[in-house]
Design a protein that fits this description.
single chain, 660 residues, alpha/beta, Rossmann fold, 3 domains, 7-stranded mixed β-sheet, 5-stranded parallel β-sheet, 10% strand
Length: 660
């Protein structure tokens, strides 16, 4: 249920609440409902529940009333329609439509009644967008259906599926039928169409405005199209908005309709969307993102900026239809979290209508900055952060990579190799079998041992593996006397080290790894809300960034998004700051950390350099063989030490480092 008609049932915030006031009137104050004294006490009890918007109780009571003898015909119709609507409002829109069919089976002429037709409209709106459109198309094409009912179907199709040309085809029927209704019925029809015009795309709305014949501005449905355009223009062009409303002044049976719509537009509410999974293994991560986003929304509203936060469940089969059904001003989307969902987006039309900032480290091909954007640290950002310190600051020139033979390890090592290729640094690499730790020490020998049996001169070793394997890996290096290499980790380490106790942290005094957030520098709003991690910060920063973009449509395509992103990036970040270049490509200057007793500590470059110098000076006085013997004694229990260092070359272990 993306847009319930009852604001109290969800946090739509002030913008949506004002915009939906007509909808509330349409379903709780319909003029043809009987307001006379009830024939039975249960009728009044049900009415009270309905007026209080207590849908579960209303459903229960009206279900009883439709089978109760002694009620009037008007009460019977009231009960059946409200029974169906209440069923839909409690999450069972399909059942609500089934109730209407049962009513029609008992009374074949029921679908000619305004009560039945309005109930059909309100129940259908509660379906998923794809099902709502399917229902409306079927009814619109059913020539035997009452034209007044086909009008209700046209309302849904105008907003959710028809092109401008198809919308125009419905206008003659809508205008004719509207003219045949009395004032109270016209007001309801105005409200119904205005509800749906929120979903019309900006381009379609523009085409429809150009289609309106001169002198026909006050004619329904043209008058509603003009009101919607005025509402959208109100925040940015108040003068034009007022001019348009002047064209339709006095045209409506519902006298308050133009002013209500204008008020909603003047409040300049922002709509921000998150496409996140609500089930499965990564649902807890999505919940953290949503939590951070909600905190940011609350902060913005406290400062006077109203925010409509929509969360689309990317796990459901029709999630793209739900995304497409959002109003056009809901243009900035955060997510998805899975690459396959991004692929689904590419195959749809959604990327043409929304500015999607994925929570992925990479996008396919040359998509970034053209059809989609990135709000997440890239793998290249990690490598760049490590090289800025190891190559630029420490001046290291001999690098090696010891990586698990999996897609992540191979990919990350490839990025490092490419980044070093133009820097004149030496580089060697060796993989190992992730599930066979007993072989790791021997694999390390292939990387760290020269043909003459001496330890290779490696300044820094890249380890794209999870933190849980670091003990075994570092002991494998120590066997070969490689105790003083700078250990370069990845963001995988942060996932295990944040707020965790690290035993023997001194063993990792020369280890460094990147992270996109700093636990020691969090805003009060996040720390006051309980435990915080990267994902919570991600949701918090995204909502603040999206609000700063001030993007309300995709009229100017990627150029507008790129410019808006560059304007919004100059905010106070909780994450490491993200920057977008003129081509829409993001880069993030990640923080660097070292393992500590308390998990992770922000890197102090000067202290790190002094520590490394002391280690190197101490190692110069300790023979490599002695270091190897000491390391062998600390190998994990049950693992065999590799063969003694050979005195003659072993071809199978030969790995010549460039320049050595």
């Amino acid at each position: 249920m993306l847009f319930p008609l009852y604001p109290s049932q969800r946090t739509l915030h002030m913008f949506a609440a004002v915009l939906l006031c007509c909808a509330l009137a349409a379903c709780t104050q319909l003029p043809f409902y009987n307001n006379s004294a009830p024939s039975l006490p249960v009728v009044q009890e049900a009415r009270n529940a309905w007026q209080a918007e207590n849908m579960p109780l209303a459903l229960k009571l009206y279900k009883t009333i439709v089978s109760t003898k002694g009620i009037t015909t008007a009460e019977y119709r009231e009960a059946y329609s409200r029974y169906a609507i209440a069923t839909a409002k409690t999450g069972k829109a399909g059942d609500g439509l089934a109730i209407l069919k049962r009513w029609q089976k008992q009374d074949p002429s029921a679908n000619t009644l305004p009560e039945w037709q309005d109930a059909w409209f309100l129940c259908t709106r509660e379906l998923s967008p794809s099902r709502a459109v399917a229902q409306a198309k079927t009814l619109w094409l059913t020539q035997k259906a009452p034209d007044t009912l086909r009008m209700q179907a046209a309302f849904i199709l105008i907003g959710r599926s028809f092109s401008a040309a198809q919308c125009k085809q419905t206008f003659p029927l809508l205008s004719s039928l509207y003219g045949q209704r009395d004032a109270s019925r016209r007001a309801v029809l105005e409200q119904h169409l205005l509800m749906e015009t929120r979903y019309i795309s900006s381009n379609t709305l523009k085409d429809l405005m150009a289609f309106i014949p001169s002198g026909r501005e006050k004619v329904f449905p043209y008058s509603i199209i003009i009101v919607e355009q005025a509402r959208r223009l109100a925040p940015s062009n108040a003068a034009e908005s007022a001019r348009l409303l002047g064209l339709v002044r006095g045209a409506f049976a519902d006298k308050s309709l133009p002013e209500s719509a204008l008020k909603a537009g003047q409040q300049n509410a922002l709509c921000i969307v998150l496409a996140l999974p609500q089930s499965g293994s990564i649902a807890p991560i999505a919940n953290k993102i949503s939590n951070g986003a909600s905190i940011a929304r609350q902060e913005l509203e406290q400062s006077g900026t109203q925010v409509q936060l929509e969360i689309i469940n990317s796990d459901v089969s029709d999630w793209l239809s739900r995304l497409d059904a959002l109003p056009p001003h809901c243009v900035v989307v955060g997510g998805p979290l899975r690459a396959n969902k991004m692929t689904e987006l590419k195959k749809s039309n959604s990327l043409q209508q929304r500015a999607v900032f994925s929570f992925l480290s990479e996008l396919e091909g040359d998509d970034e900055g053209k059809t989609a954007w990135r709000f997440f640290p890239s793998n290249r950002d990690q490598i760049n952060a490590l090289l800025r310190f190891s190559y630029d600051t420490l001046g290291l020139r001999s690098f090696a990579a010891f990586y698990p033979e999996d897609s992540y390890g191979t990919h990350m090592t490839g990025i490092l190799e490419t980044a070093l290729s133009g820097r004149g640094a030496r580089f060697a690499k060796q993989n190992y079998e992730p599930q066979a730790s007993i072989t790791w020490a021997d694999s390390a020998g292939k990387l760290l041992q020269k043909p003459d049996g001496m330890a290779a001169n490696v300044d820094a070793i890249f380890l794209p593996d999870s933190w849980k394997n670091m003990d075994a890996l570092s002991k494998s290096f120590s066997y070969y006397g490689a105790n003083n290499m700078v250990m370069l980790g990845t963001a995988l380490w942060e996932q295990s080290l944040a707020d965790r106790f690290v035993a023997q942290a001194d063993n990792y005094a020369l280890a460094v790894f990147p992270a996109a957030w700093n636990p020691q520098q969090l805003p009060a709003a996040l720390t006051a809300s309980g435990s915080t991690d990267f994902w919570k910060c991600l949701g918090y920063d995204f909502v603040r960034f999206a609000a700063g973009m001030k993007l309300s449509d995709m009229h100017n395509g990627a150029v507008a998004v790129n410019n808006s992103a560059r304007n919004a990036q100059n905010m106070a970040w909780t994450l490491a700051p993200i920057q977008w270049d003129a081509f829409g490509k993001a880069s993030q200057a990640l923080y660097l950390f070292t393992p500590s007793t308390h998990g992770m500590a922000l890197l102090n470059p000067d202290a790190f350099a002094l520590q490394r110098k002391a280690r190197l000076e101490g190692a110069a006085s300790q023979p490599a063989a002695q270091a190897g013997e000491a390391a062998a004694a600390t190998l994990p229990q049950g693992e065999q030490a590799p063969a003694p260092l050979p005195t003659t070359p072993r071809p199978s272990h030969k790995l010549q480092l460039p320049g050595m």
